[in-house]
Structure formats: C-alpha cells, structure tokens
Design goal:
alpha/beta, binds magnesium ion, FeS-cluster_ATPase_SufC, Rossmann fold, 256 residues, 30% strand, single chain, 8 helices, four-stranded antiparallel β-sheet, binds adenosine-5'-diphosphate
Length: 256
C-alpha cells in the first residue's frame, strides 16, 4: 500500500522580478492508499501552492522539507516521473490542450504511466464505461482537452482521468468549485468509486464544506497562512461549516 509523506515542506513562489515570496511554512501531512483527507482553508492560504509543489510546477521553489512517495524522493523527479510514479493532480484551473482529443490524451497518459499501451479493444470499452458513469456524451471523447469545456465538463474529465489512470495518490484542487448540484453529485460519486477501490490515497483541497456532504473524509486538516493549524475527523468539517475560518485568522497575520 502506498504512502505519500510531506515533511516540513517549505515553498516560495517565484515572482516575475525573480524574488521569492514564502508561501508554505512547514507542511506535515501523510496520505495513505485508501484514506481520504480534506485540506480546507481560506483563499490565499497556499492550498494550490501545496498541490503545485507536489506536482512539480516550475513556478514554485522548494526551500525546505521533503515529499516522499513510498520512501522515494518526489521532489527530485520530473513532472512526468511523478505521474509515472503514481501521483495525480487535478488542477484548480485545468489547461487547454489544443489539437489533442480527450481519447488520445487519456490513451497517451495511460501508456506513459503503465509503460505499455492499453489493449485497444478493452481500452475503448473502459473509456466508454467511464464516460457513462460520469453521465458524459460519448462525443466528448473526440473534443480537444479542456477547449471550450464548461466548468462541469472540466471536472468530469478530471474524474475520468482519475478513474482510468488509477494513481496511488491523487490531489484534487477545488474539484467542487463552479459545479452545480447535479455535477457535484456526479463528480463526488466518481471520487467515491475511486475511494472504494481502497488503492488510491485522496487529498481533497477545498474552500467550502459542501463537497464533504457527498464525500466523507477520514481526516480533515485546517490550512491557514501556509500551514496546517488543526486536524481532526469529519466532525471538524462540520465545525468549520458552522464557525468559518475567522478564529484561525486572528494572529495569522494579514491575509496573503
Ligand atoms: P489558495 O489555493 O489557498 O487560494 P494559493 O496557493 O493560490 O492559495 O496562493 C497562496 C498565496 O501565494 C497567495 O497570496 C497568492 O497570491 C500567492 N501566489 C500563488 N501563486 C502565485 C504566483 N504565481 N505569483 C504570485 N503570487 C502567487
Ligand atoms: Mg484560491
Ligand atoms: Mg487554490
């Protein structure tokens, strides 16, 4: 069973003038296969910075700490190597990939991760079944990745990747944002299917508690000003729903 270990992670963002602005101030978090973690915090607290740092985005500079997947240093891997090692990141703002269809994109990603192309026959069926489960039109497979996708289509596409690529650990950054209630339910069902396999560790990053009505996390971490300030079980999400982040912000300094 896989484990992602984030130890005292410190990260600065590279500003256009070349300066470094410290964002993550020592993050400690362990996500094991089969576990579902919710990382919740106010806007600007550094949640996406954490996700991008794990994924290897060049704009973020690691200034301290470590990230290990099954004991192997993730931070020294290229972005591709991280994906092949079994890490998956669903971005808050997915990028368009003009000229590449959903079907081709998924097949290429699957091939890269598995080290061999999926069998053509079974793969087409798997793709179709995944789309059906997410209530997507089969024609969607021929569209270019994220080009003109609605918010809901982008998120469904991410969950489709998650289901087909079967990562060891997945980080979902605000997968709930911009979804109407039906899309939220469909996307949550997809996440719950992945969860039920027991083979993927899930880190759900979210600002709002509403997705947690559909996906019950095993652990909740409150994230403020670049670090985890409180941890608990699902009851902590309910407390946040009632009380908000206000009381954590006092003493955290000016909002970034
Ligand atoms: P969250 O996802 O919790 O809303 P972010 O990680 O997006 O927070 O941002 C954390 C802080 O880092 C914010 O103050 C944000 O403005 C800053 N930041 C993040 N990325 C950049 C960037 N590329 N350039 C400048 N500032 C950034
Ligand atoms: Mg934000
Ligand atoms: Mg964010």
């Amino acid at each position: 069973m896989s484990t992602l270990e984030i130890r005292d992670l410190q990260v600065s963002v590279k500003l256009p003038e070349g300066e470094l602005k410290p964002i993550l101030a020592g993050v400690n978090l362990t996500v094991r296969a089969g576990e579902t973690h919710a990382l919740m915090g106010p806007n600007g607290s550094g949640k996406s910075t954490l996700a991008y740092s794990i994924a290897g985005h060049p704009k973020y500079q690691i200034t301290g700490g470590s990230v290990l997947l099954d004991g192997v240093d993730v931070l020294s891997m290229t972005v591709d190597e991280r994906a092949r090692a079994g890490l998956f990141l669903a971005m808050q703002y997915p990028v368009e990939v003009p000229g590449v269809s959903v079907a081709n994109f998924l097949r290429t990603a699957k091939t890269a991760i598995d080290g061999e192309a999926p069998k053509l026959r079974t793969w087409a069926g798997e793709l179709r079944a995944a789309m059906e489960r997410l209530h997507m039109d089969p024609a969607f497979a021929q569209r270019n990745v994220n080009e003109g996708f609605s918010g809901g289509e982008k998120k469904r596409h991410e969950i489709m990747q998650l289901e087909l690529l079967k990562p060891k650990v997945a980080v979902l950054d605000e997968t709930d944002s911009g979804l109407d209630i039906d899309a939220l339910r469909v996307v949550s069902e997809g996440v719950n299917r992945v969860r039920a396999t027991g083979e993927t560790g899930l880190l759900l990053i979210t600002h709002y508690t509403r997705i947690l009505r559909y996906i019950k996390p095993d652990f909740v971490h409150v994230f403020v000003a670049g670090r985890i300030v409180e941890e608990g079980g699902p009851e902590l999400a309910e407390k946040l729903e009632a009380e908000g982040y206000e009381r954590y912000l006092a003493g955290a300094g000016p909002a970034a």
